[in-house]
Each structure stands twice: as structure tokens, then as C-alpha cells.
Amino acid sequence: MNTHWLEVPQQQRVDVVGTLTAETKEFWLGLHGYGQLVQFFSRHFLDLANLHRAFIFPQGPHKFYLEGVHGRVGASWMTKEDRLVDIQNQWAYLDQVLRWATAEAPNARIHFLGFSQGVATGMRYLGHGTYTPTSFLAWAGSWPPDLQPQSVEVLKYLRFKGWFGSDDAFIGVEKQSQIITHYREELGLELDWDRYEGGHTFDKVILAEAITQLEQ
Question: If I label 209, which of 30, 53, 111, 121 is the partner at 20 to 30 A Cα–Cα?
Fold first, then answer.
């Protein structure tokens, strides 16, 4: 059997909270977690958009039923199957989204915000895509252990803030410590991070404060 990879045009969903115009000063590329859809994920940011700030939510290209073969649907960015191809497709996809967004809001600075699986998706893009964000907010997500040198170099000067939950069922405190140690000892990165009281979800107050701080 021979395997071939073909490039095909596709339509992918991108939701926007706020408006992208010449008046927009900051826009955030929000990358959702595993099993989420953008129409629900974006609700966390409805109160945070204003005249000068907008949020852009591309949806992961893989959609599936969350339980069985019917009912609620979720989306993801990738699985372990053909993961390297999926990662390259992510870079091309995010490039296209950012190309569109910067044309709509030519005077805005770009920021990345990742939640759960979206954290690794965004961090892997750094240094490989056309665009480099001003800052990166990594929320309740595992930082990829296999980060490539191009991404490591970008993280050395990028404004970065990581937040972990004190009671996260997916990334416990021990796992969090392993991630931070790996980045410090293996990659030479001492990234700024903190911990909130709670599980695998957003803390609305801290989220708003973190976004404002990273824009300053």
C-alpha cells in the first residue's frame, strides 16, 4: 500500500467576539481545548471584548461525537494518528486565520491564548508560522515536551504567562511541576507561571487581569 498526502481546499469555522477594524488595537487568537466547540468556548470572553480589543476563535479541524455515535459534538486540533502531518496543517491553518485577521485589523497587535490542548497547538506554532504574537497566555494546558528549537527561541523573548489549576483532573500539581522542571532543565526556559484555585476551567477574574497585564 502506498500513502499519498494531497493538499485540498477546505472551509473552517472562525468565530469572532468583538469587531476587527482599523480601530482594533489588540486581538487575541483563542485556541480551544479538546472536545470543545468555538461557539461555547467563546462565551468566556464576551465581557472582555471592547472597541479596541477583539477575540478570534478558529475551530479545530477534527470534529467527533463526544459519546458514541450521536449527541453532542466536540472538536480537537489533533490526535496521535499522523500527528506530524496534523501539526504542519495547524501551522498552515493558523497562518491563514492570522492573514485574514491582520487584513481586517491592520493596526492591532497579535496575542495568543490557549486553553488545554490549545496551549500545545499555539506553542508549537511559534517560530514556524508567518506571525509572531506579542504575548502568549497558556491556561490549564500541558506545555509540549517536544518543543522544537525555533519555538524555544521565540519563547525566550515573548511575553508569556502560564496558569494551572490547583485541582486540575487532567494536569495535577505533580504534572505541573514536571512540566516546569523540564522546560527549565532541558530547554533552558524559565517561563512565568502561577496557580489558581480550581480545576480545568477559567477563573474569570484572573483571566481578565492576565489579558490586561499582557497587553501592557
Answer: 121
* Cα 211 to Cα 137: distance, rounded to the nearest angstrom: 8
- Cα–Cα distance measured from residue 30 to residue 55, given in angstroms and rounded to the nearest whole number: 7
pLDDT tens digits along 14-42: 999 999 999 999 999 999 999 999 999 99
pTM of the model: 0.95
Q: d(Cα 77, Cα 31) in Å, to the nearest integer? A: 9
User: Alpha-carbon dihedral of residues 102, 103, 106, 111, nearest 10 degrees?
Assistant: -10
DSSP 20-39: -STT--EEEEEE--TTB-HH
Residue with cell 461557539: 39
Residue 57, SS3 per DSSP: strand
Q: Check if the beta carbon of residue 140 is closer than 8 Å to that of residue 200.
A: yes
Give the pLDDT confidence of 89-120 residue by residue, as tens digits: 999 999 999 999 999 999 999 999 999 999 99
Q: Go through the domains of the chain in sequence order and give each one's CATH number.
A: 14-215 (3.40.50.1820)
Give DSSP secondary structure letters for 121-170: HHHHHTTTSS---SEEEEES-PPPTT--HHHHHHHHHSEEEEEEETT-SS
Report DSSP letters for 70-105, one per residue.
Answer: SS-EEEES--STTHHHHHHHHHHHHHHHHHHHHHHS
